[in-house]
Design brief:
8-stranded parallel barrel; 3-stranded antiparallel sheet; about 40% helix
C-alpha cells in the first residue's frame, strides 16, 4: 500500500508569537527553528519580515534549514500593482524559498474591514499569488475566515480559493480564524472544497482552539482530503491557541488509520525527542509545562490507583495507549495514601532498588507515606521526595551535607529615591565532608529583580557554596512553586511543592511541610539538591 504524504507546517514563530505575553527574541527564534528542523517539519514560518525589528533581524540571520523556510505577509493593497506594493516587496526581500500570504475570503470582512469591492479583493489575491510565483517563490495562500465565509457566502469564498489556486498557489490553506467551526462542519466543508475543483494535495488546514477542538478539526480536514497541516508547538496562538503539533504529530505517526495511510516527515528517532522539544519551548517562555498535556505531560503516563499500578506491572498496555518512551516521556507510578504494594514495587524498581512482595520494608515505607500524608505531605506530585523517603527507610539515602542553621530576613522600606522596595537576605551554614561553610545572599536591588522573596534568598544562599558538590547544582533551576494550606485553624500547616529542572532535560518535584512557609520551602529545596546529587551519581563519602 502506497502511503500519501502529509506535510507539516509550523507557525510557532509567527502565529504562536501572537499569544498574549509571548515575544520571542531573535536568538530564541533561532533556537526554536533548529529544534523544529531537527524534528522533521516540512515548513517553518519565521514571521512577518518588516513587521517589527525582531522579525527583521531574525530573517537577516536565520539559520539554514532542511525545512522550507517561509515568510509571511498579506495580499497587495487595492489601487496598486503587486510589483509596486511595498508591503509585499518587504516580504519578498526576505529571500525565503516560500512565501505565505493571507487574504480575506469572507465577504463580510471584505466589506467591513477592507472597504473594497468583492471583485477587487479577488483580484488582489490572484495578482499577489501570481507575482510570488513569477519571482520563483513557492506561494501559499492563507484563506482567512474561510469557514465562516463559506457558511455565509460559499460561492464567493470558493471564488477566492480558486483565484489563488489558478494563479499558481502551491497550497491553499483553509483557516478557521475565529476558531468556532466544529470538526464535523470542517470535514464536510473541506470535502466540498475538493469537489469544487481544488485537489486535496494542494489544500491545507489551519485551525484555532476556541472550542477546544482544533486537533479534532484538523484531523477531520485530513480525513476529508487536506494534505497540509498547520499548527504550533504546545498549541501556542492568539486567544485559545492553534492546533497543537505536539499532539498531532504522534497521533499521525502512531494512530490508525493515519499511521498506515500517510507518510509524515518526522522519523521515529525524532519522535522520541518530542517531550524535550515541548519542554524546551516552555523553558524559553518561562512557563510551567502542562502536566495533563497529551503524550508529553508529566501526568500523561501516571498511574496512581493501586489497581492500575498492579496491572501496569504485568502489562503496561492495560492502561497506556502507547509506550511513553516512544515520545520521550516516562511512566510514573505516584505514591499516595491510596498506594498499595504494587505501586511501591514499581516505584522501587524504577529507582533501581530490588524488593520482593511481602518484604517488611515495604510495609514500613507505606506506613511512612500514609503517616506523612496525614501530616500534610503529598507524594503523588513530588516523586523526588518520595524516592528519598523510601531510600531513608531502606537505609540507602546518602548524607551529602547537613544544614547547621539558616536565617532569612525580609525588609520593606523606602529607598533613596523614595520608592517602596522589598529586600531579602539569607545566611546558610552547611557542613560537608570537607568542613563547614557559611554562605550569604542579599538582594540589594529588589526593584530590578523579579523574585525578591525570602525563599529565593535562601535558595541563592544554599546553592552558592556547597563545596565538593557545587558544580553539580549549577544547572538546577526552579520552574514552579505551589503553596497549599492544609487542615485549618490553629492546626493549619503549609505544604510547599517546588518543581525543578536541569540542563540534562530532567524535571522533578519535591515537597516540604511546616507551620512556617519558609521552613516548608527550605525542606523542599534540600530534597531537590539531594535528589539531584543522587541521580548524578555523586558519592557522599
Amino acid at each position: 500500500m502506497i502511503r500519501e504524504r502529509l506535510f507539516l507546517f509550523d507557525t510557532t514563530l509567527r502565529d504562536g508569537q501572537q499569544t498574549q505575553g509571548v515575544q520571542f527574541s531573535s536568538d530564541e527564534k533561532t533556537q526554536i527553528t533548529k529544534a523544529l528542523d531537527d524534528l522533521g517539519l516540512d515548513y517553518i514560518e519565521g514571521g512577518w519580515p518588516g513587521a517589527n525589528p525582531t522579525d527583521s533581524a531574525f530573517f537577516e540571520t536565520r539559520p539554514q534549514t532542511r525545512a522550507t523556510f517561509t515568510a509571511f505577509g498579506m495580499t497587495k493593497r487595492a489601487g496598486r500593482s503587486a510589483a509596486n506594493d511595498d508591503v509585499l516587496a518587504g516580504v519578498l526581500n526576505a529571500n525565503t524559498p516560500a512565501v505565505c500570504i493571507v487574504g480575506k475570503t469572507h465577504d463580510f470582512h471584505v466589506d467591513t474591514a477592507l472597504n473594497i469591492t468583492l471583485e477587487e479583493n479577488r483580484t488582489n489575491i490572484s495578482e499577489s499569488i501570481a507575482h510570488l510565483v513569477a519571482q520563483g517563490r513557492e506561494a501559499l495562500f492563507d484563506a482567512e475566515h474561510f469557514f465562516d465565509g463559506y457558511k455565509a457566502n460559499p460561492d464567493y469564498a470558493l471564488d477566492c480559493l480558486k483565484a489563488a489556486y489558478d494563479a499558481g498557489a502551491r497550497w491553499v490553506v483553509l483557516c478557521d480564524t475565529n476558531g468556532g467551526t466544529l470538526p464535523s462542519e470542517m470535514g464536510e466543508i473541506t470535502s466540498q472544497v475538493i469537489a469544487s475543483g481544488i485537489p486535496g494535495d494542494h489544500l491545507g488546514i489551519h485551525t484555532h482552539d476556541d472550542t477546544g477542538t482544533a486537533v479534532a478539526g484538523t484531523l477531520a480536514a485530513v480525513d476529508a482530503g487536506a494534505r497540509q497541516i498547520q499548527g504550533t508547538l504546545n498549541g501556542l496562538g492568539e486567544r485559545c491557541g492553534n492546533a497543537n503539533l505536539i499532539t498531532l504529530i504522534p497521533t499521525l505517526l502512531l494512530k490508525e488509520p493515519y499511521a498506515s495511510h500517510y507518510e509524515v516527515g518526522v522519523p521515529a528517532e525524532a519522535l522520541m525527542t518530542l517531550t524535550r522539544v515541548s519542554r524546551m519551548l516552555d523553558d524559553i517562555l518561562n512557563r510551567v509545562p502542562q502536566r495533563a498535556a497529551p503524550y508529553v505531560g508529566a501526568s500523561a503516563f501516571a498511574h496512581k490507583a493501586g489497581l492500575h499500578a498492579s496491572a501496569i506491572v504485568k502489562d503496561p498496555t492495560t492502561y497506556e495507549h502507547i509506550a511513553p518512551e516512544t515520545v520521550g516521556n516516562a511512566r510514573i507510578v505516584p505514591m499516595s495514601n491510596q498506594a498499595g504494594q504494587s505501586n511501591l514495587l514499581r516505584r522501587l524498581e524504577e529507582m533501581g532498588i530490588d524488593a520482593e512482595k511481602g518484604d517488611a520494608a515495604l510495609s514500613r515505607i507505606l506506613d511512612a507515606v500514609k503517616q506523612r500524608e496525614t501530616d500534610g505531605y503529598a507524594y503523588d506530585s513530588a516523586q523526588a521526595s518520595f524516592e528519598l523517603l523510601a531510600r531513608r527507610e531502606l537505609g540507602l539515602a546518602p548524607d551529602f551535607f547537613e544544614v547547621e542553621r539558616y536565617r532569612v530576613i525580609t525588609e520593606r522600606r523606602r529607598n533613596a529615591r523614595g520608592e517602596i522596595v522589598v529586600e531579602s537576605e539569607a545566611v546558610v551554614t552547611v557542613s560537608t565532608r570537607d568542613g563547614a561553610r557559611t554562605s550569604f545572599f542579599k538582594n540589594e536591588h529588589a526593584q530590578d529583580i523579579q523574585d525578591d522573596g525570602p525563599v529565593n534568598a535562601l535558595w541563592q544562599a544554599l546553592k552558592s557554596d556547597l563545596g565538593p558538590f557545587q558544580d553539580k547544582v549549577e544547572d538546577m533551576r526552579l520552574t514552579d512553586f505551589r503553596v497549599r494550606i492544609t487542615q485549618g485553624g490553629t492546626e493549619a500547616v503549609t505544604r510547599v511543592i517546588i518543581d525543578f529542572a536541569d540542563d540534562q532535560g530532567r524535571a522533578w518535584a519535591t515537597v516540604g511541610v511546616s507551620a512556617n512557609i519558609v521552613d516548608a520551602s527550605f525542606e523542599a529545596l534540600l530534597d531537590a539538591i539531594t535528589w539531584k546529587l543522587l541521580r548524578d551519581g555523586v558519592s557522599a563519602s
